[in-house]
Amino acid sequence: MLGLLRKQQRFTPAAPVASHEAGPTAAVHCRGVTKRFGSADSGTWALRGVDLEVPPGQMTLLVGPSGCGKTTLISIVAGLLEPTAGEVQVLGAEFARLSGGSLVRFRGANIGFVFQQYNLLPALTALENAAVPLLIAGQVRRQALAKTAAVMEAVGLGDKLHSLPSQLSGGQQQRVAIARALVHEPRLLVCDEPTAALDADSGRTVMELLRRVAVQPGRAVIVVTHDSRVFSFGDAIVHMSDGRIDRIDGSPRV
Amino acid sequence: MHWIALKMLTGDRSKYLGLIFGVTFATVLMSQQVSIFVGIMARTGSQILDVRDADIWVMDNKVRYIDEVPGLRDNELLRVRGVPGVDWAVKLYKGQVRARLADGNFRNVILFGLDDATLAGAPETMVAGDLADLRRPDAVIIDTAGYEYMWPGEPVVLGRTLEMNDRRAVLVGVCKASAPFTTLPILYTRYSEAGRFVPKERHLMSFVLVKAAAGVETQTLCSRIEEQTGHSALTRDQFFWKTIRYFLASTGIPVNFGITITLGFIIGVAIAGQTFYLFTIENLRQFGALKAMGVSNGRIVGMILLQALVVGLLGYSIGVGLTAIFFESTGHITHLAGLHMYWQIMLGTGAAVLVIVVLASLLSIRRVLVTETAIVFRT
Ligand SMILES: Nc1ncnc2c1ncn2[C@@H]1O[C@H](COP(=O)(O)OP(=O)(O)OP(=O)(O)O)[C@@H](O)[C@H]1O
Ligand SMILES: [Mg+2]
Fold first, then answer.
1. Are residues B306 and B372 in the same domain?
2. Which site among A91, A119, B69, B210 is 20 to 30 Å from A132 CA-CA?
3. At what angle do helices B2-11 and B297-330 cross, to 10 degrees?
């Protein structure tokens, strides 16, 4: 039933969303989400009640001072962390209702990840790394690698397919990570500080790449960032502080 | 996923080799020490197994093991022969005497005095000379290892003489015999000659060797002999195990070997376990990333177990190989001869290695499973 719902949604063209108001077409829908780490009396509140809609077909930036809860929020949105309270719906699936196993499968099929630390497997070549989501999905290795090669081409690493991560620059590793995040065509891409470990130039290349390759109709892209130089890449900027959302700026792009 | 697991495992060559080394080390230590232990224990009773022609050993009922046997009175032989179901029964002397060599050196030797008429209990395989020559006056036969021990580095020369109890003995043959526990030379002679070679003892007959008549069950015959003579009657296997049990219970040997073997196991667990655990901890982020990307906990467990089993199998194979090479290359050394690997020990070591790698991976698995997947976002 859920699967059917998802399938239908996949073919719903992304309606042009003017602002981040609630709507059935939102890819991510959070209502009253809180998260406390530690015990009830001595724990810290990382999120103190977050309402958020993220539309597909756009790049949404999540910004705010260190410790304000950005990583916590996208971990919850990506199904890696359970909220203490509140409602999270992603691509039509209500996380609270998914069993552990189906949540894992849901993540594998629908969400792509880009991490600040790349998290590539050091023993695998760039091409093999980028193919991992297809291998997880059970594709035959040869097919998976063939399909991945095209994506590697798209991120500009067609000539580095057989390099090990240790032989690549930080920017190149992050591009491998982006290829890996996109290879299985997920409908939600979450990126935590994808440019934080990179110099300004590589950072810009990565953001341009995300803009050009990742943002697609029907795919929502959430990018957590500290880096005000990349603010201009977002369609919308969600400002957080102290576990709450302060305001949301639409940043009209030219 | 299996492919990724193996790539992860072999990706870091030095850690991979370190893991295998740990398992190899444990395997060698355990399989080699257990084999030597079993071999040495088997030696304590090897002279019993060497006697193939008799079924039953009759002895004083207080005997605890083969090397400590008081003599029976000569007429006991007749009483044993009188037990129904006995095909034949003969005397056997077994004891230790001092042999003086031509050059004045002397050696303690194990002396067997075989029944003059039948030579029951005689060695099965001659290396030099003829068993029949044992019937010549003063004749003795020595085992190969014993010859090397008495006349090191010298070629086999028959006809050389030695003295026991100031009586001259002439070497007429060299035979094969299982190595005894004490690694002393083994000399065979006739019972009547033994009487001259052994310093005066009241009763020379250590054992009566018995062959059961066709169709008579050995165990039943043992009971019957015990009943009628009041002596202890044991089958070859029973006497063998009785001797081994004595050494197990009354010497420090099992404790010593037990400690070494336990240490092998513990060191194996420690080295392999710790290296493997560290290996997993270092890969925690990688496992976290895989979990985030949709790999279930079950498949993570499968990956770690696969890695552990591969390491275990490789380490075990190399270890067993090294142990085999050890026994192969020491086989010609006299005092190590006859020690070898037993397949049961290989199986047992394999089981221990399996326990080691599974224990090692359980720790790692636990750690990976309790780690929040969200660590992938942590720097
Ligand atoms: N696993 C955890 N256990 C305890 N406290 C945590 C944990 N993760 C986050 N926190 C706390 O929750 C708060 C929000 O953390 P979070 O990582 O979401 O911040 P952030 O906005 O991503 O910061 P940064 O910009 O530095 O990455 C912080 O106070 C942090 O210390
Ligand atoms: Mg963060």
1. yes
2. A91
3. 50
B100 plus B133 within the same structural domain: yes
Whether the CA torsion A93, A97, A103, A105 is positive or negative: it is: negative
DSSP assignment of A94-113, as one string? EGGGS-HHHHHHHHHHHEEE
pLDDT in tens, B297-325: 999 999 999 999 999 999 999 999 999 99
Give contacts of B292 with chain A, Cβ < 8 Å. 78, 80, 107, 113
**Which atom number of ligand 1 is nearest to the Cα of residue B374?**
1
Chain A / chain B CB contacts < 8 angstroms = 84
Q: Which of A34, A70, A74 to mutate to test the pocket of ligand 1 (most atoms within 8 A of CB)?
A: A70
* Atom number of ligand 1 nearest to Cα A45: 12
pLDDT at A59: 94
Count how many domains chain B has: 2
Residue A22 banded pLDDT, cuts 50, 70, 90:
very low
CA of A67 to the centre of ligand 1 (A): 5
pLDDT of residue B111: 95
Across the interface, whether the CB atoms of A80 and B376 are under 8 A apart is answered yes
How far apart are alpha carbons A120 and A125 in whole angstroms?
Answer: 9
- Over range A220-236, report the average pLDDT: 90
pTM: 0.78
**B374 at interface of A, judged by CB pairs closer than 8 A:** yes
Our answer on whether the CB atom of A37 is closer than 6 Å to any ligand 1 atom is: yes
Which ligand is closest to the CA of A240, given by its number? 1
Q: How far apart are CA B173 and CA B352, in angstroms?
A: 46
User: Is B7 a member of any domain?
Assistant: yes
Flag if B1 and A71 touch (Cβ within 8 Å).
no
A1 pLDDT above the threshold of 60: no
On whether residue B299 sits in a domain, the answer given is yes
Can you give the residue range of the structural domain that contains B146? 73-230
In a domain, B236, yes or no: no
pLDDT tens by residue, A137-190: 999 999 999 999 999 999 999 999 999 999 999 999 999 999 999 999 999 999
